[in-house]
C-alpha cells in the first residue's frame, strides 16, 4: 500500500479506536482488534486501499465520536493476522499526526482527517531547548528505569525536536488527558518547555519515592535485625537457664488471682487458674499461647475487688440533681425516692434482695435530659459512668460475649464496661433500650432480662470468660424515647420516669443558667466578652428551634459563641452584645416552632392538639362540603386509626342531625326529602400532608369540624381540643396531655377542651405558666364540646 502525499490531505479515512494508549508517528505497534466497530473500520481501509486513522478513546470501550479524542495517528497496515480466539492482530506503522475536522459516518467511524502541522523553530533556539531537555532526561534516568540504553542513545543523538518529544512522551507514564494536550500542541517551543517542566516534576516525584523506599527498607532491616538478635538472645538464655520473662509473667498472674480470690466465685477462680496453668505448660511459639494470655489478662483486669465504698447520701443526690438540672421536678423526686430507699436499706443492713430493688427507665423526647440525669447520679455517688448504646443492637454476643472458639472473640459490653470503669459497681446507662433489634443472631432483650433481673444478675455468665459475674452492685439506668417499642417482659422489669417537654419559660431559665455559661466556657470566651439579652434568648427559643428538649437550643447558643469568637479576633473588639436587631447576623434561618392561631372564626376549621416525638403541636383540621352522596374523602397522610376516628365522627354527627340535636339551616338542603349528610361529600384534610399523622385523639376535633359544616356555624379560633370519641358521643381520655397543652399555650390558644378523665388525672402535671394563661375545660360528652366550640 503506497503512502499518500501531504498535499492529498484533508482526506476521508476510517477510524480505528485504541483503548490503551496514544500512538505516535514512526512507531510500529501491534494492535489487537476484538470488537465489530474496529473490525469494520479495518475492512473498509483494506477494501478502499486507504490509510487508517488510529484515535485513542477517552475511556475503555468508547466507540462513538463523543467518546474518543479528536486527534490520532495516520498510518498503514503492515500485516493482518487472525488469532484462534477470534481476535485479529494487525501491525500498524504510524506516519503523521492528524485531527478530525468533519464527521462522516458512525458505523464504522469515518471522518475527514487533516494533518497536525507544528510551527517552525529557529535552529539555535531548538538546539538550546533540546540540550536542556536531554540533560533532564539524563537526571531522570539516573533515579528511575524509564529509558533503556538504546532509547536514551537515540534521544541524545537525535536532532528532530518533534520526534524526540514524541519518544519521551511515549515512554513516561502520563494520563490520557495530559498526553492529549501535548499531542495537539502545535507550538514546538511551548511543547518543549512544557515537557521540560513535566520531566522536572517526574524527577522530584521519583526522588521522594526513592527516599521513602530507602527509609522503609532501612526500617525493615532494623526490625529484622532486632528480631534475629532477640531470638538469638532468647536461645542463649534458654541454654543457660536464665530466660525468666514467661516465668515472671506467670508469677504476676498468680499473684493478681490470689488478691481477687475472696471477691470472686469459686468457679471463676478455678477457670482463671486453669487457664494460667495451661499457659504455663504451652510453648510460647504455639499460636494458642497469645489467645490464652489475652484471656488471662482480660479476666484479671475485671475489677472484682474495686468497689466504690462511698455511702449513699440522699442529700448529696438531691443537691447534685438540682445543681445540674432546672425543672424536671417529678423525675428528680422519683430518683431521690429511689436512692432514699437504697440508703435506708444500707443503714439498716437489709439485703437488696429483701428490699424494693427496681430498674429506672427515663423516657421522653430527644434532648430533655435523660442521659444527663444519669451523669448527675454518677457524679453524686462518686461512681464511674458507663454508657452502653443499644440502638440497633441485634447480636446477643455483643452483650453476652463471644465464645473463645471464635476468631477475634471478646467479652460482652457489660464486662468491657466494668474493665473501662475500673470499678465493679459503676452507674451503667443502657441508652436507647427501645431501639433494640431482633435477628438471626438472637434477641438481645432476652439477655437484658437476665442482666436487669435482681434474681438473676448475681450470676451473669459471660461466654468469653466462661464464668459468672455478680452484676447486682451495678446501678442500671435505662433511657428510651418510646416505651411502646420495648418488649413486654423487659418492660415489666423497669419502672418508668417520664421526662416530657419543657415550657418556653423553662427553656429560657435553662439557657440562661446552664447553657450560655457552659458554652461560653467551652469556646474559650469570658462572661464579660459576650452578652445575650433576655429578649434575644426568648426569640431564639420561639423562632429558631423546634424541639421538646434543649439540644437544638444548645447548638444555636454554641453557634453564637463560635461566631462571637471569630468576631473578637478579626475585628479586635472587647465585647459583643447580641440583641434582637443583630441576631440575624449570627443565626440565619428561622424555624417557626408552632404556627400561631388564626385571628378569625371560620366554618369547618378547628384547632386540634397532637403529640409528636419532638413534643406537642397544634394541627388544624379543615373540612369542606361538595355536592355528592355522603362520601368521606380523607387527605393529609392520615393513619388507619385516624381514618377510623373520622368515620366515627361522621356517624356521631349523623345521629345528632337525625335526633335534631344539631340544627341544619334550611338553605343547606337541595332535596328536603333526603338527609342532609347524603347530599354532600365531605373532604377532610389535615395540613402538612407530608407528615404522617395517626391516633384516636382527633375524634372530637373532626366531629366539631363536621358539625360546623352542617350547622353553618363558625368555630372559635381561640379554642383547641383533644379527645377520643365513641359512637355514643362520649369523650374518652388521651395521652401526651402535657405536650399538647404546652403547644396550645405557645400558639396563644385561650381555651383548651380536654377529656374529663384527663382533667381529673393529669392536670397536676401541667406547668403553672400554662394553667395561669389558659382556660382548660373538662368535657365528658360531645354536646359540651359544641357549647364551647361553635359561635
From TrEMBL:
Residue span, Lon proteolytic domain: 600-791
Active-site residues, Swiss-Prot/TrEMBL: 697, 740
Gene Ontology MF terms in the entry: ATP binding; ATP hydrolysis activity; ATP-dependent peptidase activity; serine-type endopeptidase activity
Protease recorded as keyword: yes
Top-level taxon: Bacteria
Entry annotated with the keyword ATP-binding: yes
Signal peptide: none
EC number, UniProt record: 3.4.21.53
Catalytic activity, as annotated: Hydrolysis of proteins in presence of ATP
GO CC terms, sorted: cytoplasm
Binding residue positions for ATP: 364-371
PROSITE patterns, per database record: LON_N (PS51787), LON_PROTEOLYTIC (PS51786), LON_SER (PS01046)
Swiss-Prot/TrEMBL keywords: ATP-binding, Cytoplasm, Hydrolase, Nucleotide-binding, Protease, Serine protease
Domain Lon N-terminal residue range list: 13-203
Oligomer status and interactors: Homohexamer. Organized in a ring with a central cavity.
Family stated for the protein in its record: Belongs to the peptidase S16 family.
Name of protein: Lon protease
Organism placement in taxonomy: Bacteria, Pseudomonadati, Campylobacterota, Epsilonproteobacteria, Campylobacterales
Gene label: lon
Amino acid at each position: 500500500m503506497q503512502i499518500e502525499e501531504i498535499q492529498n490531505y484533508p482526506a476521508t479515512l476510517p477510524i480505528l479506536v485504541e483503548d490503551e494508549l496514544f500512538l505516535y508517528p514512526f512507531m510500529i505497534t501491534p494492535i489487537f482488534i476484538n470488537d465489530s466497530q474496529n473490525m469494520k473500520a479495518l475492512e473498509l481501509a483494506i477494501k478502499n486501499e486507504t490509510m487508517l486513522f488510529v484515535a485513542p478513546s477517552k475511556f475503555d470501550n468508547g466507540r462513538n465520536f463523543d467518546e474518543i479524542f479528536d486527534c490520532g495517528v495516520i498510518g498503514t497496515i503492515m500485516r493482518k493476522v487472525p488469532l484462534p480466539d477470534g481476535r485479529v492482530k494487525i501491525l500498524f506503522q504510524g506516519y503523521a499526526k492528524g485531527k478530525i475536522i468533519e464527521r462522516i459516518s458512525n458505523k464504522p467511524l469515518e471522518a475527514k482527517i487533516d494533518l497536525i502541522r507544528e510551527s517552525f523553530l529557529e535552529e539555535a533556539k531548538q538546539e538550546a531547548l533540546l540540550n536542556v531537555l536531554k540533560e533532564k532526561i539524563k537526571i531522570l534516568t539516573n533515579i528511575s528505569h524509564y529509558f533503556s540504553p538504546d532509547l536514551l542513545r537515540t534521544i541524545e543523538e537525535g536532532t528532530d525536536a518533534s520526534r524526540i518529544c514524541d519518544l519521551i512522551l511515549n515512554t513516561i507514564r502520563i494520563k490520557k488527558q495530559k498526553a492529549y494536550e501535548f499531542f495537539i500542541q502545535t507550538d514546538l517551543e511551548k511543547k518543549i518547555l512544557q515537557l521540560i517542566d513535566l520531566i522536572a516534576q517526574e524527577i522530584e516525584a521519583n526522588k521522594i519515592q526513592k527516599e521513602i523506599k530507602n527509609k522503609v527498607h532501612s526500617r525493615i532491616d532494623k526490625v529484622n535485625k532486632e528480631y534475629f538478635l532477640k531470638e538469638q538472645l532468647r536461645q542463649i538464655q534458654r541454654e543457660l537457664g536464665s530466660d525468666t520473662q514467661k516465668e515472671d509473667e506467670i508469677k504476676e498472674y498468680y499473684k493478681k488471682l490470689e488478691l481477687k480470690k475472696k471477691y470472686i466465685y469459686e468457679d471463676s477462680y478455678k477457670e482463671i487458674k486453669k487457664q494460667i496453668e495451661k499457659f504455663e505448660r504451652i510453648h510460647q511459639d504455639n499460636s494458642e499461647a497469645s489467645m490464652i494470655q489475652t484471656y488471662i489478662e482480660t479476666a484479671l483486669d475485671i475489677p472484682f475487688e474495686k468497689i466504690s465504698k462511698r455511702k449513699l447520701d440522699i442529700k448529696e443526690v438531691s443537691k447534685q440533681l438540682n445543681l445540674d438540672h432546672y425543672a424536671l421536678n417529678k423525675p428528680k423526686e422519683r430518683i431521690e425516692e429511689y436512692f432514699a430507699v437504697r440508703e435506708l436499706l444500707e443503714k439498716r443492713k437489709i439485703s437488696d434482695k429483701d428490699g424494693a430493688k427496681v430498674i429506672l427507665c427515663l423516657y421522653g423526647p430527644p434532648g430533655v435530659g435523660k442521659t444527663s440525669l444519669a451523669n448527675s447520679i454518677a457524679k453524686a455517688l462518686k461512681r464511674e459512668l458507663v454508657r452502653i448504646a443499644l440502638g440497633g443492637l441485634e447480636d446477643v454476643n455483643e452483650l453476652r460475649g463471644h465464645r473463645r472458639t471464635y476468631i477475634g472473640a471478646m467479652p460482652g459490653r457489660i464486662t468491657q464496661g466494668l474493665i473501662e470503669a475500673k470499678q465493679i459497681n459503676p452507674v451503667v446507662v443502657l441508652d436507647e433500650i427501645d431501639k433494640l433489634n431482633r435477628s438471626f443472631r438472637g434477641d438481645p432483650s432476652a439477655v437484658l432480662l437476665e442482666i436487669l433481673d435482681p434474681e438473676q444478675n448475681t450470676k451473669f455468665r459471660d461466654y468469653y470468660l466462661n464464668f459468672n459475674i455478680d452484676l447486682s452492685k451495678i446501678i442500671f439506668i435505662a433511657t428510651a424515647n418510646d416505651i411502646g417499642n420495648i418488649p413486654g417482659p423487659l418492660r415489666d422489669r423497669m419502672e418508668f420516669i417520664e421526662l416530657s417537654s419543657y415550657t418556653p419559660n423553662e427553656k429560657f431559665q435553662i439557657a440562661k443558667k446552664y447553657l450560655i455559661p457552659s458554652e461560653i466556657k467551652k469556646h474559650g470566651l469570658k462572661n464579660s466578652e459576650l452578652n445575650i439579652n433576655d429578649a434575644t434568648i426568648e426569640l431564639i427559643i420561639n423562632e429558631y428551634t423546634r424541639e421538646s428538649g434543649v439540644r437544638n437550643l444548645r447548638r444555636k447558643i454554641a453557634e453564637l459563641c463560635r461566631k462571637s469568637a471569630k468576631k473578637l479576633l478579626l475585628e479586635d473588639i472587647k465585647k459583643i452584645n447580641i440583641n434582637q436587631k443583630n441576631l440575624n447576623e449570627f443565626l440565619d434561618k428561622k424555624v417557626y416552632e408552632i404556627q400561631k392561631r388564626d385571628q378569625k372564626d371560620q366554618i369547618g376549621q378547628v384547632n386540634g392538639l397532637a403529640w409528636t416525638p419532638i413534643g406537642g403541636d397544634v394541627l388544624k383540621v379543615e373540612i369542606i362540603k361538595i355536592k355528592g352522596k355522603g362520601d368521606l374523602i380523607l387527605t393529609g397522610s392520615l393513619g388507619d386509626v385516624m381514618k377510623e376516628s373520622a368515620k366515627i365522627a361522621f356517624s356521631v354527627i349523623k345521629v345528632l342531625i337525625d335526633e335534631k340535636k344539631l340544627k341544619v339551616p334550611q338553605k343547606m338542603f337541595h332535596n328536603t326529602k333526603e338527609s342532609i349528610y347524603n347530599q354532600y361529600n365531605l373532604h377532610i384534610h389535615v395540613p402538612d400532608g407530608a407528615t404522617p399523622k395517626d391516633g384516636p385523639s382527633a375524634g372530637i376535633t373532626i366531629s366539631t369540624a363536621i358539625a360546623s359544616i352542617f350547622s353553618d356555624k363558625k368555630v372559635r379560633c381561640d379554642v383547641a381540643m383533644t379527645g377520643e370519641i365513641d359512637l355514643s358521643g362520649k369523650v374518652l381520655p388521651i395521652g401526651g396531655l402535657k405536650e399538647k397543652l404546652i403547644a396550645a399555650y405557645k400558639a396563644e390558644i385561650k381555651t383548651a377542651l380536654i377529656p374529663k378523665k384527663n382533667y381529673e388525672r393529669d392536670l397536676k402535671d401541667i406547668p403553672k405558666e400554662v394553667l395561669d394563661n389558659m382556660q382548660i375545660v373538662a368535657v365528658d360528652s360531645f354536646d359540651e364540646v359544641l357549647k364551647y366550640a361553635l359561635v
